[in-house]
Design goal:
- This protein is mainly alpha-helical.
- 42% of the residues lie in helices and 8% in strands.
- It contains 8 helices and 2 strands; from the N terminus they run E-E-H-H-H-H-H-H-H-H.
- The protein has helices spanning 48-51, 53-57, 62-74, 80-93, 108-119, 124-134, 145-154, 156-159, and strands at residues 33-39, 42-47.
- It has a two-stranded antiparallel ribbon.
- The relative contact order is 0.11.
- Mean pLDDT is 83; it is low at 166-171.
């Protein structure tokens, strides 16, 4: 193979130039990419297909985890935080025995609403604003800001997709 035919982003055709390429597709990226937050301060830009729930849970998440792990190893940037984020992704997909749900689980409808907004890309600040406005006059103690951050970090919408209609990005905020 001649060096003239090696794929690069410099001369790649049909690659969107106004956005970040998919970390997996690279020069074959088609369509829009989105930032996927994995927790532990780890984020990755992926195309819709690679960011989809279907790809993330394929073979119990092993395809997703192995692909990112090998990419990060090849680039010499598989950090402890990235390894923990990938381990957490696999752990979230393992089936667990049901147990009682205390504390913030007293707000199941609110949590589902906030998680639908998170799944569609709403920022945490929008969720905090929505909860504080919605429950401003409620005598019950609403979920704390830390709880709203935890709900985002747990990413339950990956394991348990919403059964209702998808929330619009502006549903929270």
């Amino acid at each position: 193979m001649s060096i003239d035919y090696l794929p690069t982003l410099y001369k790649a055709r049909k690659v969107p130039t106004k956005q970040v390429v998919c970390a997996i597709c690279v020069e074959r990226t088609r369509g829009r990419t989105e930032l996927l937050r994995l927790g532990y301060g780890v984020s990755v830009w992926l195309c819709r297909a690679h960011a989809s729930r279907e790809f993330q849970v394929q073979r119990n998440g092993r395809d997703f985890v192995l692909t990112l792990m090998q990419l990060w190893q090849a680039h010499g940037c598989l950090t402890t935080a990235r390894h923990k984020a990938l381990d957490a992704h696999l752990a979230a997909l393992k089936e667990r025995a049901a147990r009682s749900k205390p504390g913030s689980y007293a707000w199941p409808d609110l949590r589902r609403q906030v998680e639908r907004a998170y799944a569609s890309g709403a920022p945490t600040a929008a969720a905090v604003g929505h909860v504080s406005r919605t429950l401003a006059t409620c005598p019950a103690k609403p979920p704390s800001v830390r709880t709203l951050h935890r709900w985002r970090a747990q990413r339950r919408w990956i394991v348990q997709p919403s059964t209702g209609p998808p929330a619009r990005r502006s549903a929270v905020g």
